[in-house]
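To fix ideas, we close by showing one paired sequence and structure record:
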Amino acid sequence: MELAEFFSGRTTAAIAQSLLGKKLIYHTAQADLSGWIVETEAYLGQQDSTAHAYQGHRSPANEALYGPPGMIYIFSLRGRMMLNFITQAAEVPQGILLRGLEPATGQKLMAKNRQQTGVLLTNGPGKLTQALGITDRQLNLTMLNAGALELELIGGRQPQQVSSGPRIGVSRRGSWTDKPLRYYVTGNPYVSQLPKRDWNLITHGWLRE
């Protein structure tokens, strides 16, 4: 499957859900670091009062939002990088924030990058980029699958169930703050802020292969 095909013909919310279980790979000089996406947040552009492109806002900092589907958008929040994928045609500034990743390979290097182990490695948007070693905006305005960051479009894992809820830490302006545009693999312990009582430690919320 081509990148444009994966990101075409569907709503951003639908794409955010279909990303769950896809493997993300960051190719570094030291090792390939990878994991399965377990949590995403959709942002719906000019209409979305929590989005960076609300009411058509456009600046050098958010220019990637107006790029083609599959473009990488990285912004800094409290000193950590937030990794986003653009989902719609150029000039339609919608995207998806990656919020949680279950590690697949490279955990030792991730632990070194984070100085953490276990679910604390990647159970949050700033944590997962730090674990991968994405510490600047160098990938901003570049395309997935054209450089160091790869999204495997075929295969991956299948969630037993997908849950949705309000986005976390977004702007309180307007009426979009509490819309259920955050999607996650139900019971996966690498989902950010998921209470321990809701963790599924047997399957992590995946269908058995």
Q: What stands out?
A: The mean pLDDT is 95. The chain is about 15% helix and 25% strand.
